[in-house]
Amino acid sequence: MKVVVIAGGQGTRIASVNNEIPKAMIPINGKPVLEYEIEMAVRYGYTDFLFIIGYLGDQIESYFGDGGKWGIRIDYFKEEKPLGTAGALGYLKAELTEDFFVFYGDTVMDFDMNAMLDYHKEKKADATLFLHPNDHPYDSDIVDLDAEGKVREFYNKPHAPGFISRNMVNAALFIFSPKIVSQIECGVKSHIEKNVLPACLEAGMNLYGYLSFEYIKDMGTPDRYYSVCEDVRSGKVKRMNRRNSRPAIFLDRDGVLSKEVDLLCKPEQLELIEGVGEAIRYINRKGYLAIVVTNQPVIARNMCSIKELDHIHAKLETLLGAEHAYLNAIYYCPHHPHGGYPEERKEYKMKCSCRKPEPGMLLKAADDWNIDISQSYMIGDRPSDVQAGENAGCKQSVQIEQNKPYALLDALKSILEN
Ligand SMILES: [Zn+2]
Q: How remote is the CA of residue 385 from the centroid of ligand 1, in Å?
């Protein structure tokens, strides 16, 4: 399977290098960013590369040559004129006859390539897009997925005021099938995110989002450049690969993140408790996954549909995003054990293993995201939350006062700083 690296585009100037260089050659601790990408792919057994180069591309070619030094083979496609991120692929239909990875050459990342490929195959996708939550969704390209992970809509930036969505950001890393390439015209400038993927969706192709919390960042600004260099140096980039287990903070929703409203069932009713944005930012910064686990019997009681619940969660993530904070995942239990209400939805009236104090949601999250529960914490406002954390085997479970400003942040600091 080939790895196609898009390394055309404009050059850049950075302080430590005097002349203009292609972005793929930006040095990180003495090595070009593209070399890290190659080393990662080689670790997963990929050895067949196709570099798309343009302006200043000779610098890339003279450094990497035929790839022999890394035990790989590199072919080059040189753009005569800038064709956007996708245009060159139009010329490569004869070369791209099987599914292939698409990397941008200026991205620092470390992800489990095989896990993404397995997902792509399992979904029989025409394209799989790597998605993640970030701390500025309001000015990012958002992808809307259905419950199976299939792309429903692209919401590219800039967004209209009042835009509400889940925090699912296109990280610009893909697996494409040849079907995607067949949509790209030769010699016409086009962009993957702006033109190609929306056109493929329109044409009815199967596009899927692959959600991951592994490290992936481009270096758009000098600030980001220095933080990325530090993250490579400290080992953070590799540590976040999903093959390594991570700790999580499990959080109840109502009364802990959002103000407790009796049977909340409309997005308009959802308001953050003061200090919650800061608390979630703190979790994000500390390297813990922020996972919501919430009982939502409003579904079983037919007071709220799954679709409305999705809107409520979109509102929650949008409010947090405005404060540069993000949740990694939201799990809810739609069940309720007691039947007998007139409007109830019988299919959700059951004794389940997910309704807290049962540990089902925490265990499912641990399985989905390789979470080390023994190093994780549960924070809620009810004894059933604490019980769920204990039943799951969390390191500690804490009950905080419902709706109290800054209660969550205070609890986190006392747990994680002692
Ligand atoms: Zn349940």
A: 14
Where in the chain are the domains?
Answer: 2-238, 247-416
Domain 247-416 belongs in CATH node 3.30.70.270:
no
The strand pairing partners of 143, in sequence order, are 154
Q: Kindly provide the b/e burial profile for residues 374-390, where b requires at least 16 CB atoms within 10 angstroms of the residue's own CB.
A: eebbbbbbbebbbbbbe
254: annotated active-site residue:
yes
CATH of 2-238, one of 3.30.1330.40, 3.40.640.10, 3.90.550.10, 3.40.190.10: 3.90.550.10
How does pLDDT run across 359-378, given as a tens digit for each residue? 999 999 999 999 999 999 99
- Residue 353 Cα to ligand 1 middle (Å): 6
Q: How much distance in Å is there from the Cα of 308 to the middle of ligand 1?
A: 18
Q: What's the pLDDT tens digit per position in 334-356?
A: 999 887 777 889 889 889 999 99
- Whether 139 is catalytic: no
Instruction: Give the whole-angstrom CA distance, residue 89 versus residue 148.
Output: 29
DSSP-based three-state secondary structure for 170: strand
Which residues does 167 contact at the CB level (< 8 Å), separation at least 6? 133, 134, 137, 142, 317, 318, 320, 321, 326, 327
Against a cut of 0.85, is the pTM above it?
yes
CA of 137 to the centre of ligand 1 (A): 30
